[in-house]
Backbone:
């Protein structure tokens, strides 16, 4: 039997108040694509950080190629042949691809040689990328290629990838998988972290499943169903959202030729978006990040003013109205970023409940805030949405991502809006919390609310949306009934064809 | 190795403790500085902190406490709103001067008038307006042209300073003053005099205004939607936008509020304790109030206490200059150290120190 490339034995890591990893052992063979599965907080991140030298385990041993592997920092891990691609890219928008790659290397060669090497590697692995382009102009998929190539130039033995497909179109995912399969064929091992079980079934050879810091099982993903894996992750049966057949009611929200420049640099302008959403309808808007999702939310929530007629609620022009005026009329929104946008990190849940709930819940009387009322509202959200926190007096940033997400979505849903707009409602939320949030959205629609769900998770949209539209370069495709759409059709709607051809060669 | 670890919640204990610790550390470091200057450190500290209150001539110094604390508190309360909202008015000194010029100018325009019931209230309005308008300059420039309000408000201090010189020598100069610089003395102008209300207490209308400001600020911050919006805008600008708080309006309101209160403080000072528009009228209250605001945790009650403490260092500092021949700059250094140490100790509110191995959570 061959010696495993990386062997973990009895790895344990505790943080004050929580054990992140308890006695974790598994092995990765050369040329194996190994999936690490688990809900948020299951300990996946801590584990890979230990392998990558960012965290020092309390006990347990790691062996790489039979030699003890005890990296003190990522530099040592890279020297040993381990590289990692994080979910959030660490790239500088204003620099070129080659400059960005050079910044991540220990001893970068001269830029001209490096550009040649980048071209070679990108040809070799089918990752079209022009080293002279400015990163700020690249799509998310292309940015990821920059990170991948940066890793590949270091000839890694083990490549760790954290949620690599969350920002890609289905076609881009295919390109990525082709690359990973080539790497595997050359003997590089890949440790692959993802929530997307179908992808894991398509790509990975083996999977280790973590729950609450412990290994609860392993499997060969090809041989089990996605549902079985999900149930191993949550340790119980998974509740799949159900919905009653919706009756389309009157038109509540109308977007009519909505166009607006982005308020942010490197943002995406909105271009002539027209769509109607009816009472009881769930409109899913898909698209790769950075195609106008944030701008669309701002234009709908009222944080970005547009021409009055571009946004109408029950045919009343509201494009110029403020967020609070829109809330008073029945339009509520939940932005993507939980901390710092939907909620103020250092404020208590009571204060955060008042933040957007003050208008519809009548929490301000004569200019004075009714803090008792706000506390009651916060407690109601906590109860109804099963938010795990000691109480409404805790600050928002003390909550885990999933719990805070339940809080901010619950806050909007419990205001009984006529129109609800949510962006990435279950981003980074574990499976059971995500199911709860989706169910709440469907229940709200069943009561006659028009719902717009903006999401990059296509499975989510297919699960809850009546109609599907794609946002690409700030333009919205005409909506189509979600039922019966194939993944290829969705990909084409998302403009998945872009970047399919070999990179635009600039002389 | 020593590492800082972010606390899950800001520590309440430390937010109370750190100003006290900063005072203690300042006393120690100040003592070392005084010793290095060849002065007895313990005596110097006692002269600054103890003698004005309980020393031999305390009866003379105690009223000065309220006189000095009132403008500091009034200005610091105004500044605290902006500081909480992330709007940095560093030019309160200039707004203070403009308030004094507007207030005194208004009173002198009607000299001699007997109508105190009309002149004095309108002076307060004029003084407030003077500071407010001066603060609107950085405000409007920021809103319209995205200039930095820190720089503009600070630079306007020097403009106001020159304007004060010009007024003391020109437009507002006492026509019966034998050519000496300086305006008529408002203390001898009953309709305009901000006199001591109770003899030997230092209590004048400015003190009452400062106390009123403390109470109002407390209510605004804890109960009113405006206070909530201010805190929100400072902590999380995007969440504030989501909550419907207009960033531009917040800039104008906060600068207007702090400028108005600084102007009011300047007016009370020129009409009372100072009496005259003179080139030496301003003594740095507008800058010291920044220290007061932070030393008081930007909390109204904290500012009240911090204002009294800083007033004490002013009085004690003068005493130390007279009795121990400490240089004036040593006292200013001492006051500056207080803010410096406070900011350093403040780390403890949001972080805890861990001794041991390096870790990245």
Residues:
């Amino acid at each position: 039997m061959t010696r495993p490339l990386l062997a973990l034995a009895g790895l344990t890591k505790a943080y004050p108040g929580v054990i992140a990893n308890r006695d974790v052992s598994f092995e990765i063979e050369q040329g194996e694509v190994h999936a690490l599965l688990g809900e948020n907080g299951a300990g996946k991140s801590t584990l890979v950080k230990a392998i990558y030298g960012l965290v020092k385990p309390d006990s347990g041993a790691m062996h790489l190629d039979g030699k003890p592997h005890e990296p003190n920092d990522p530099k040592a891990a890279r020297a040993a042949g381990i590289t990692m691609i994080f979910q959030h890219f660490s790239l500088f928008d204003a620099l070129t691809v080659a400059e960005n790659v050079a910044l991540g290397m220990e001893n970068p060669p001269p830029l001209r040689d490096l550009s040649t090497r980048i071209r070679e590697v990108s040809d070799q692995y089918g990752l079209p990328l022009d080293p002279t382009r400015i990163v700020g102009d690249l799509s998310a998929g292309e940015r990821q290629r920059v990170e991948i190539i940066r890793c590949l130039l270091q000839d890694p033995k083990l490549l760790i990838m954290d949620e690599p497909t969350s920002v890609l179109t289905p076609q881009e995912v295919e390109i990525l998988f082709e690359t990973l399969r080539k790497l595997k064929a050359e003997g590089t091992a890949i440790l692959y972290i993802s929530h997307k079980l179908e992808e894991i079934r398509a790509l990975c050879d083996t999977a280790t499943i973590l729950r609450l810091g412990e290994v609860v099982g392993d499997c060969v993903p090809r041989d089990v169903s996605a549902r079985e894996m999900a149930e191993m992750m949550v340790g119980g049966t998974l509740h799949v959202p159900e919905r009653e057949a919706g009756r389309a009611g009157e038109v509540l929200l109308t977007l009519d030729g909505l166009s607006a420049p982005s308020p942010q640099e490197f943002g995406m302008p909105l271009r002539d978006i027209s769509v109607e959403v009816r009472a009881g309808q769930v409109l899913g808007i898909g698209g790769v990040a950075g195609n106008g999702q944030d701008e669309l939310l701002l234009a709908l929530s009222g944080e970005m003013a547009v021409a009055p007629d571009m946004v109408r609620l029950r045919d009343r022009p509201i494009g110029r109205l403020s967020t609070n005026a829109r809330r008073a009329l029945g339009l509520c929104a939940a932005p993507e970023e939980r901390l710092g946008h939907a909620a103020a990190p250092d404020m208590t849940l009571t204060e955060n409940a008042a933040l957007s709930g003050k208008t519809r819940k009548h929490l301000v009387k004569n200019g004075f805030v009714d803090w008792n009322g706000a506390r009651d509202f916060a407690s109601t959200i906590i109860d109804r949405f099963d938010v795990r926190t000691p109480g409404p007096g805790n600050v928002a940033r003390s909550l885990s991502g999933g719990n805070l997400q339940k809080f901010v979505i619950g806050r909007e849903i419990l205001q009984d809006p006529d129109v609800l707009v949510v962006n990435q409602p279950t981003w980074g939320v574990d499976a059971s919390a995500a199911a709860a949030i989706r169910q709440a959205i469907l229940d709200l629609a069943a009561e006659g609310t028009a719902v717009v769900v903006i999401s990059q998770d296509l499975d989510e949209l297919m699960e809850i949306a009546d109609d599907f539209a794609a946002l690409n370069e700030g333009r919205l495709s005409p909506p189509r009934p979600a039922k019966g759409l194939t993944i290829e059709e969705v990909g084409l709607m998302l403009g998945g064809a872009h970047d399919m051809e070999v990179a635009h060669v600039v002389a | 190795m020593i590492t800082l670890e972010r606390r899950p919640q800001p520590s309440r204990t430390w937010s109370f403790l750190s100003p006290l610790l900063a005072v203690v550390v300042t006393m120690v470091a100040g003592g070392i500085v005084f010793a290095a200057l060849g002065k007895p450190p313990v005596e110097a500290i006692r002269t600054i902190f103890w003698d004005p209150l309980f020393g031999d001539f305390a009866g003379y110094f105690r009223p000065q406490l309220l006189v000095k604390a009132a403008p500091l508190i009034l200005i610091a309360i105004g500044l605290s709103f902006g500081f909480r909202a992330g709007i940095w008015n560093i030019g309160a000194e200039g707004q203070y001067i403009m308030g004094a010029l507007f207030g005194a100018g208004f009173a002198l325009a009607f000299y001699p008038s007997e109508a105190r019931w009309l002149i004095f209230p309108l002076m307060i309005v004029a003084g407030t307006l003077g500071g407010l308008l001066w603060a609107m300059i950085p405000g409007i420039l920021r809103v319209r042209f995205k200039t930095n309000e820190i720089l503009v408000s600070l630079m306007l201090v020097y403009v106001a300073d020159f304007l004060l010189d010009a007024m003391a020598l020109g437009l507002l100069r006492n026509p019966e003053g034998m050519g000496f610089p300086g305006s008529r003395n408002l203390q001898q102008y009953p309709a305009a005099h901000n006199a001591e209300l109770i003899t030997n207490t230092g209590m004048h209308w400015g003190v009452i205004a400062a106390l009123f400001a403390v109470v109002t600020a407390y209510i605004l911050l804890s109960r009113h939607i405006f206070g909530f919006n201010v805190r929100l805008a400072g902590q999380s600008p995007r969440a504030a936008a989501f909550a419907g708080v207009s960033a531009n309006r917040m800039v104008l309101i906060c600068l207007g509020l702090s400028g108005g209160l600084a102007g009011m403080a300047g007016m009370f000072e020129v009409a009372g304790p100072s009496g005259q528009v003179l080139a030496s009228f301003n003594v740095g209250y507008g800058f010291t109030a920044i220290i007061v605001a932070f030393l008081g945790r930007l909390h109204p009650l904290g500012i009240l206490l911090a204002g009294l403490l800083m007033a004490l260092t002013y009085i004690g500092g003068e005493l130390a200059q007279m009795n121990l021949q400490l240089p004036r700059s040593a006292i200013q250094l001492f006051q500056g150290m207080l803010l410096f140490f406070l900011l350093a100790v403040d780390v403890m509110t949001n972080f805890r120190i861990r001794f041991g191995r390096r870790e990245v959570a």
